[in-house]
Predict the structure.
Amino acid sequence: MSKRPVFPGQNLYVLGHPCGLPLKYAPGSAVENIEKAYFISRMDIYSGNSGSPVFCADTHEMVGMVVQSDPSDFCWYENGWVSMV
């Protein structure tokens, strides 16, 4: 875990296994806002990514972990849930 503080505009990527999928690498996001105990970023993740490590794209140090995402990633279609993306 990095000991350096995150900053607005810092480039990030995330690795994870959302919803039991194979390892997903999601680059191309950045820190948008910083609160006391967390930062906000728009990442290409599913709600099943909770616990996934978030890395600084420049140093590859872990700078955080996914704790919340948009629950509207899925919609009900006929007999089951379907990814909106």
